TrEMBL record:
The keyword Lyase does not apply. Belongs to the small GTPase superfamily. Ras family. It comes from the Eukaryota. InterPro entries: P-loop_NTPase, Ras-related_GTPase, Small_GTPase. The keyword Transport does not apply. Its EC number is 3.6.5.2. Pfam families: Ras. Keywords: GTP-binding, Hydrolase, Nucleotide-binding. This is small monomeric GTPase. It catalyses: GTP + H2O = GDP + phosphate + H(+). It is an enzyme of class 3 (hydrolase). GO terms for molecular function: G protein activity; GTP binding.
Amino acid sequence: MCIAEDTYTSEEVVDQQPVLMKVMDTADQDVPANCERYLSWANAFMVVYSINNKRSFEGCQQYLDIISLHSKSIQHDSPILLLGNKLDMEQYRQVTKAEGASLAVKHGCLFYEVSACLEFETVQHVFHEAVREVRRETERNQPVRPLFITEERPFLHLVTPATVASKHGLASCTLNTLSMVNYKEIPSVAQAKLVTVKSSRAQSKRKAPTLTLLKGFKIF
Ligand SMILES: Nc1nc2c(ncn2[C@@H]2O[C@H](COP(=O)(O)OP(=O)(O)OP(=O)(O)O)[C@@H](O)[C@H]2O)c(=O)[nH]1
């Protein structure tokens, strides 16, 4: 697929949000060479072969191997999309869809067959999927939000339940149930001690079993 050798930027709207994409076309050779530049630069990779050219498919396998090795070495997976291009050349097909799909599974790639010269929408969809996949990957790599434990003390006047809930991303439906408690971030694992406590609430037969279970432990 022709993209200029140097980079260019393009503003796309994906899910109502504009996304600035920088694209670098690297593959003006059949075998990977000087890959470091784009391996460390890219947020996502699109590896493209022609369905009517077995050699280009074999070339892709080398690129995918290099990307996989790089991801392992930096312990970070950037999304990879494997594209079988020139779908309009079906009658000259040398690479089956199953072969493409199987290579994609092997390397954990998304897989599409497209025709760059005939189907603008499909190609656009593929680029948008690449952006979405980068977003998903970024979200997956966000540090886990801390859990919160509660203590049965009334809120300070200045801190409303709504403030606390929105600050920590708690769903609004928890507000009523948790409105009369304090929130504390759970400490790091190294500092945490788990101690069994029995509170009067824990022993109350009128409370729901899940509440009893929750109140059966205190982490501090
Ligand atoms: N039939 C058909 N031809 C295509 C399609 N996409 C690209 N081509 C043609 O394939 C040839 C190579 O296209 P390029 O976009 O230069 O391919 P490339 O792999 O980027 O090539 P390099 O820039 O040398 O790396 C050109 O003649 C294109 O017109 C397609 O979807 N269908």
